[in-house]
Design a protein that fits this description.
This protein is of the alpha/beta class. It is built from 19 helices and 32 strands. The strands form seven sheets. A seven-stranded mixed β-sheet has the order 24-23-22-21-20-19-32, sandwiched between helices. The protein has a seven-stranded mixed β-sheet with strand order 25-26-27-28-29-30-31. Helix 4 runs antiparallel to helix 15. The two termini are 39 Å apart.
Length: 642
Amino acid sequence: LVLDSKCYLFNVGDGLQRLAAEHKIKLAKISDLFLTSTHTDSLSALPGIMLTLADSTETKRKLHGPPGISAYFAAASTFAHYKDYKVCEYSSYNLEIDPYKITSKGKFQDENITVKAIPVYSFQKTSVEVKPGVCFDAPKESGMCYIVECPQEQRKFRVDKAKELGVTPGPMFGKLSSGQSVEVNGVSVHPEDVLDPPIPPPVFSAIHFPSTNLINEEVFRQVLNYTSPEWSLSTIIHLSPNEVLQTESYRKFLAELPPSVQNIVLNETASSQDREFPIFMHSDILVSKLKEAAPSIFSLPQNPELTQLHPSVPNCIHPKFLMNIHLSPFRHKGVEYLQVRTPSTKLHRLQVRDTPPATEHHQESYWDKVTSHIPNNDPSVLLLGTGSMKPGKYRNVSGIFLGSTSSGILMDCGEGTYAQLVRHFGSSVQEVLLNLKAVLVTHLHADHHLGIIKLLHERAKLTSESIKVIGPSDFYTYLSVCNLLTGPLHFSFEQCKPRHLLFDLVVESVPVDHRIEAYGFVVTHDSGWKVVYSGDTRPCNALVEAGKDATLLIHEATFEDELKQEALHRFHTTIGEAIEVAQKMNAWKLMLTHFSQRYAKFPETGEVDYVLGFDLMCFRMSEVHTAVQAMNALANIFESTD
């Protein structure tokens, strides 16, 4: 919701930050965030967007939501400090413990808008202890209805009428415009004499009943109150699933709405994906260029099929991406479809250094290193995110898929990981999720794990079989609260330890040198291949020793060599340092990832004997030499843009 002085955000689904970067949607003016449920699709990207907003300005912000949002915020605070945020949970009782306020007063008001907040929730709930002696409720299900009263449009001053009544321009005009009467030649002139009739304030509503159990007739009554002449109920956004929309009570409510109300269904089966253009256009164009130069390691991104809206919803507007609904001024009221900017192919180039000539060890065949008759001896490596800090137009945040559609693991799972899996595998993504054996999380910086709740949620739609999550000990608090609020997510948690057994894999968690508790992973298969993933770290001797003679080292390279001091300060690694780690480890092949978002693209010069990672790059381990050979070909496709 955009006004001149502030913006208000309703729901924070997975991928929001990347979409904002892609389409230059400015988020810094957001003052309040309103969640319509504790459902995954309402809040999975919340921690990341809150961190980004906190870094952008010093604005005091407030998070609003249904019962359970305080428990969620407290759990997310175990891995991030959210300065200058207040939490307002709308419930049936009152409790205030800074920064949390649980209130039975369902109203928010500032200088722009008035919001009625009507919570709906299950009485089945669990108590979550967020600090010694302080517990918050985590209901099994919760949702919200928000009714938002927007500012009333200023009445138009009719100069012609004022002059007819003898009012002279100047202070009298000002008084009449502000609602005061004036006297002209002993005759009173009132504002109603010179102002157009008042236009009812625009109102919109967002209704989210996560299940049929939470349908609340009081919500319908409150919304219908705004169909009276003194209000202009413009739009209702229906976030409830189709099973709710099809109930007799909901259909009756829809039938009572006047034809002037625009209905927008925005749920899982009414996608906002627009076939006219891909929502990740910059990335799609880049990947298509990369595929031209290296067709063996890139494939064109796939997009999900659209689902038709439910026909029982009257006056329904098909949701399209970047659709803009004008509520005010009245003369501009209606729907506008914003034009998508055509991306530029200007590509900032990353300086890398030449590598020494390949040794005999590096020229060995992959098949000399593994036992060929053992299944899964030649897994694929798929890069789902190769950027750092926050999602960008060209690089998503960390995520690596290792395996095949029949058996795989994820190493890190940043925001948007599920969407990247869909873009690569298309309709086969369900098979991938069903056969995913584990998710390994290196540390609790948001760019390495915020996509896991969305991923587990989508997987839980397909199976009740548990998946193993391996990560730092504090991660369990967040996962368990999300499981209560959005689950069941069907996972088992294992704290990082020296040795984990995963079917035909042995995973070693190696403590590395980062600002917080962090691990690298050494993954060894029964057939003999060994993949080492550094996570975020300075060059680390412990990882070098654990990863000796690795088949593939995947190492972070956040900064180019000229920024070594910044790498030291932030506990990251430069490109040159990562190359030295590979040499000390005697790794057969090296792949670099986790680039600063300032390096969206490709190296400037130099022959390289390693792989510079790009999003959606995919190759089998036996084909890694093909990926290395492709690097110089990839560099050439951007020459004309420099």
